[in-house]
Amino acid sequence: MKQHLDLYLTLLKTSIISQFQYRVAHLFWLLAMMVEPVVYLVVWGTIATSQGGNVAGYTAGTFAAYYITWTLVRQMNIALTPYAFENRIRKGRLSNELMRPIHPIHFDMSYFMSLKVVTIVLWLPIAGLLWWVFQPAFTFTAWWQIPAFMLALLGGFVTRFLCLWALGLVTFWVTKVSAVFELYFTIELLLSGRLVPLAIMPAWVRDISQWLPFQWTFGFPIDVAVGTLTGPQVAWGLAMQAVWMLIAGGILALVWPHAVRRYSAVGA
Amino acid sequence: MVYLRLFWIFLRVSVISEFQYRVNFFVQLFQSALALGTGLVAMSLVFSYTQNLAGWTQPELLAVMGVHIIVGGLIKTIIQPNMNRLIEDIQEGTLDFALTKPADAQAIISVREFRIWQLIDLVLGSVVLGYAISQLSTSLGWLSALSFAAAVLLGGLMIYSVWLMLSVGAFWIIRADNFLEIFDSLYQAGRWPVSIYPGWLKHTLTFVLPIAFAVTLPAETLARQLNGQNLLFALGLTVFLLIVSRLFWRFGLRHYTGASA
Amino acid sequence: MGQTIKVDTLIKTFQVPEREAGLKAAVGSLFKRKYREVEAVKKISFGIEAGEIVGFLGPNGAGKTTTLKMLAGLLFPTSGQIDVLGYEPQRREKELLRQITIVMGQRNQLMWDIPALDSFELQRAIYQIPEGEFRRMRDELIDLLNMGDLVKKPVRNLSLGERMKAEFISALLHRPKVLFLDEPTIGLDVTAQRLIREFVAAYNQRYQASVMLTSHYMADVQALCKRVIVIHHGQLLYDGGLAGLVEKFAAYKTIGVTLNDPELDLSEYGEIISNSKGQVNLRVPKSATAQITTRLLNEVAISDLTIEDPAIDSIIEQVFQQEAQVV
Fold it and tell me: Which B residues, 16 through 55, put their C-beta within 8 Å of a C-beta on chain C?
């Protein structure tokens, strides 16, 4: 435990140093990522206004609250894309990593955590700007809303990270993986609350997404922040995150040794 | 003539290398279908709550979406891969190979890559557009068809010019890829008519990155009234951007030779 | 001391797709793809002692890197046994990984954007090196390689040679007992090559580490290795002393003669390799060297005469060429 803590702190330190050198690049990237939610927000805000003020319980103000929180959740959610495995294998970076007495997942985990330290600093002023332009309406009902949001945010990241890492392992067996990944991302877009709040979706879609990991990594933390969930609903969501962490982690633990074995049979 | 042959040779090489990966065709088909599906889902969600979006009816919006897919396909077939390669070459110093060929360097760097499978989007977009037009009450003359084609062509050239200027930024800034990241996401905003956006975004999409001209205008020419004035304005802007980007390219080249010496 | 590496009848086969040139073949390969088996390594056996530096020679594609990767645990052998420090490398146990290292000249492991010093810190955390030992080792290596304050500059601002030196420090901080060096001096200038060579020798002496080195530069091999293993087409051609390699494979010697009369033709004595103003180099069969020398001394007016073994590069080249003809 102490060893891992030392490793994480050192990894975080080194990657924060190198990430900060690209702060301008990060800023551009961040700005680019703002377009998507602003488009959704404009479209749905327009509809809400034209329909006499609300759509499925969402007013222009709650839509603004939803999509502004969206920008933070999206940033905190960024995890290794499964495509990274292709590079890892093709450029032989995996060979370097396999020579080290540490599981490569730790390098990724700490890298993406360091990324968040950098982006959150850059995100704050942009969020302020969006707040001023779109006038969001948050509902604060209880003191635990903020700590619960923090927890849900962290849980969402770890869950998504593990799911994507597990998915990336497909690369070891299949050469053309992008179709698989694209399918995953499309389903995620529709069922996570990224495209629209799940409340906008038909009931049967909401029923399905209950039993999939996607909404627990995206829509759920947003709903916690916006204030549309009750205490038991929040607890249930956190529990679902834990379940999916266990499932994805379990798959990872089972498949990883085979993936390495496969890699070392074919060669780098 | 020389340049046509050059283009043909590059095209042939690209086709040969892409044919080695047949799977890519199916992968691309699959991805385009997914993207189309997502767009349709978003649109049907919108129209399950309302009859029109800021004055745009469903068939009109479908037409915008069709044009968006067509122009996006053109970008991904030829503009984006060539510009990515240009940036890569500038970053790694391998641009020398293109510059030492006895032909206009801008022409070479603009036609080296060709992603044939991306043309699928052209087909899918046309289907969407065709369906949208059949749903519209307006009848379609060959004059509006012609001006539509002209509008798409002008839009494509404008996007090429802007993209070239952004890529030339790589002569000074190491991580110029990030500009393109912004371009890519702003292009996604073109899926909806530019007029629905608040002023600042509308102006960005019209004058900074001419997506309004590349997508909304051609769709408008078909789905709504043909507006000769807008088309003329687009022509003027295209000529202007082509000249400016040409000058900027030359300016950047001077910087390149200066830096690598 | 005993052996740190033992390799017994090691075999590695790959499946590779076959592909022909041209548009027609490209379209054809869409539907049917042919595979063939390639034996990259064929029944190789050898052992390496602690503290020994062994040169691993062979032309491109001979199976050097494949063998090295199997020894490092990056490739799974098709059959045969490997034992490194008592472990099977393909099992990749942490205890083994903490005692070995691999340095590849064409691949960098240091983080590009930060000073090497910070990357070293990362190595400490990864290999869990105790703080005191880490500092001592780090400073010692920096000193040995004359890196000085260069370790405080971002890696991307270093020259190729400086970067390689930093790579070496990073790779040796955990004081490995076995070093796999794959073309460590490739692309470096002569001074940097010499420095790396001296460094490897010093590390080997100080810590009695076993080193396996592949290099295209025979100077590396001559400076560092008493023993060489030569492989070609995946087969072991030679395993023994460097001197013995010359003895075994050099079929010719070079006789250098300085003539009193520059016009004299010596082609009846042997093959003339060069001739400039009476300075003639003759290539003669090794077995006939003594006889031809005697004849030259008796029959021709000579002011100077030398006998030399051919350069090691040309011997190696000759060995590979001969083999290629046989196959």
Answer: 16-17, 19-20, 22
pLDDT tens, residue by residue, A41-63: 999 999 998 888 888 889 999 99
**C3-247: what fold?**
Rossmann fold (3.40.50)
For residue B134, give both structure tokens: 């059949």
Q: Which strands, in side-by-side order, build the sheet including C3-17?
A: C35-49, C3-17, C79-84
Chain B window 39-68: which residues touch A at a Cβ cutoff of 8 Å?
A: 41-42, 45-46, 49-50, 53-54
Four-point Cα dihedral C217, C218, C219, C224, nearest 10: 110
The A-side interface with B (CB below 8 A) comprises 22, 24-25, 28-29, 31-33, 35-36, 38-39, 42-43, 46-47, 50-51, 55-56, 133, 175-176, 178-179, 182-183, 186, 189-190, 195-196, 200-201
Helix (H) or strand (E) holding C235: strand C235-241
Distance CA C5, CA A202 (A): 65
So what's the ipTM on this one?
A: 0.83
- pLDDT tens, position by position, C15-42: 776 666 665 665 555 556 667 788 889 9
Dist. CA C320–CA B211, nearest whole Å: 62
A134, A41 contact by CB (below 8 A):
yes
Contact A96 C94 (CB under 8 A): no
Which residue from C66, C101, C113 is facing A21, i.e. has the nearest CB? C113
- What is the spatial distance between Cα A131 and Cα A129, in angstroms, rounded to a whole number? 5
Q: C26 vs B20: CB contact, 8 Å cut-off? A: yes
Rounded to whole angstroms, the Cα distance separating C51 from B131 reads: 77
Instruction: Report the gap between the CA of C30 and the closest CA in chain A (Å).
Output: 14
- Provide the whole-model pTM: 0.82
Where is pLDDT greater, at A128 or B173?
A: A128
Locate the domains of chain C by residue range: 3-247, 251-308
Between C311 and C229, name the one with better pLDDT.
Answer: C229
